[in-house]
Amino acid sequence: MTRPHPQPAANPRPGRAALAAFVGTTIEWYDFYIYGTAAALVFGKVFFASTMNPGVATLLAFVTFWAGFAARPLGGIVFGHLGDRVGRKTALVITLVMMGLATTGIGLLPSYAQIGAWAPAGLVVLRVLQGVAVGGEWGGAVLIASENAPKHRSILYAAFAQQGSPTGNLLATGAFFALSALPTPAFLMWGWRIPFLLSAVLVVVGMVIRLKLEESADMQRVLQRKRTVKLPLRDVVRDHWPVVLLAAGTLPVINVTYFRSTFALSWATRELGYAQGTFLGILSMSLVVQFLMQPVGAWLVSKIDMRRAMCWILIPEIVLMPVMFHALATRSYWIAVAGMCVSTIPSAMFYGAVGGVLARVFPANVRYTGLSLAYQLSALVVGGGTPVLAQAILNATGSIVGVAIASGLYACVSLVCMLALLNRTGHRADELSSAERSDAAEWGADNAAGGLEQASEGGALKPAG
User: Fold this and answer.
1) Per the structure, how many domains does the chain have?
2) Contact at 8 Å (CB) between 436 and 361?
3) 374-412 tens-digit pLDDT
4) Is this structure's pTM higher than 0.90?
5) CA separation (Å) from 223 to 51, 76, 260, 370?
6) Containing domain of residue 170, as a range?
7) Could you tell me if residue 113 is inside a domain?
8) Cβ(137)–Cβ(350) below 8 Å
9) Contact 248/414 with Cβ under 8 angstroms?
10) Is residue 273 helix, strand or coil?
11) Does 7 map to a domain?
12) Which side of the chain, N or C, has fewer Cβ within a 10 Å radius?
């Protein structure tokens, strides 16, 4: 007879933790995405000299967009350290406050006409603070949902945190869509600032929810057993660097959203003649598709061999992104809607599953750091650079073909790295991953068996192999 596992104090209900992760990530991603939308529509005109070539000004606005991605690994390291040493909840409260202050600051920032070069400088500083905040947010939100879930359903519960991305993006797009009815001078003078200033209200709502949240169950076990490490980053780099690199390599495909949103918004409104409100409406429809398809991806990956599921998801993406650009180039509204929505499906299914998949590949005591480092390294190299790369290709060639090819290559890289990672760490959601087996061994076979039995509600995970 197995000895009962001593349960962590105040173990939160999985549904409550998942809801808290969803609300928090929605607010953080809303703040992050309104910057991308404003960079495409406004910042080149407001924060750079009016004498500058419009294409160059837009490119520089996208460079400031990239600055947020450049700061995200720092946020992943700092808040990963805090989350692995002190707790997930503490890190998530701080990231939310930091993001809210930075976003509100952008809404109050004077224009280039008012303060000259200090305007783009201030924009970069505030964008960097946004990047640090979101760099620490994603990993913690995924873990607060997945670590409190029944083990055999952790990928599904982690998808709640992923749902914050399309929801935040939809709110950001909807805010700018509503403001697109303003006359252009009013929109450029003050209208674009409203979505940024609304962040202050949203942060208050998020803080109320997060302050009531209990620490994740796995982290409570780590703290109770005194398994925290002094420098989580050192341990991750020393002991898990192949997994970090492979995990980072799985993620380029999620950044095709910036081809679809930030870059495509600029290209369609400046080069193809789409009205701003029209294209924002098309983008909103694709975000609804993303919201609906992400849980489907998490469910599929939870049900069958993860390698097979990832092939089914990612191979279509290689073809569909180039098709999307062709659909937009037709300038036909319904063809554009179909192209945007259909091309969204594979990357949405992947994004819905990937948080829970990657949370399984690191031990609990360095999981926040490992997960955040992998995600933010990919964001640094690929994410923020995507609209910059796309705009540079378009400026250099005058053709969308090179951009379409680049978007397809993202999916190829993700598929190869994902298959390699799953072969290394475990490829079935109903079995313990290699990292989870390591945790079980350290916690003791009897305690681990009791813990998994309770966590999976009678459906304990099978040891791999």
Assistant:
1) 1
2) no
3) 988 888 778 767 777 887 888 888 888 888 888 888 889
4) no
5) 58, 21, 42, 18
6) 14-455
7) yes
8) no
9) no
10) coil
11) no
12) N
Residue whose entry in the numeric block shows the structure tokens 């783009």: 120
| pLDDT tops 70 at residue 7 | no
Query: ∠ CA(220), CA(224), CA(227), 5° rounding?
Result: 95
- Tokens, residue 289: 């598709």
Q: Which residue in 30, 79, 19 sits closest to 375, CA to CA?
A: 79
463 domain-assigned? no
- What average pLDDT does the segment 109-118 reach? 87
Q: How many other CB atoms are there within 10 angstroms of residue 200's CB atom?
A: 13
Token pair belonging to 44: 């080149």
Q: For residue 152, give the amino acid letter.
A: H
End-to-end Cα distance, the chain = 24
Q: Check which CATH number belongs to the domain holding 202 and give it.
A: 1.20.1250.20
Tell the residue number behind the tokens 């069958």, with chain if given: 304
Which residues, including other chains, have CB under 8 Å from residue 415's CB and lie 6 or more apart?
A: 253, 310, 311, 314, 315, 318
The radius of gyration of the chain from alpha carbons, rounded to an integer in Å, stands at 22
* C-alpha closest to that of 104 among 75, 133, 76: 133
Structure tokens of 463?
Answer: 């040891």
Euclidean distance between CA atoms 57 and 146, whole angstroms: 42
Q: Is 311 helix (H, G, I), strand (E, B) or coil?
A: helix
Write out the two tokens for 86: 């002190």
Mean pLDDT of the chain: 84
pLDDT at residue 45 greater than cutoff 50: yes
Question: Which amino acid is present at 230?
Answer: K
3-class secondary structure, 50: coil
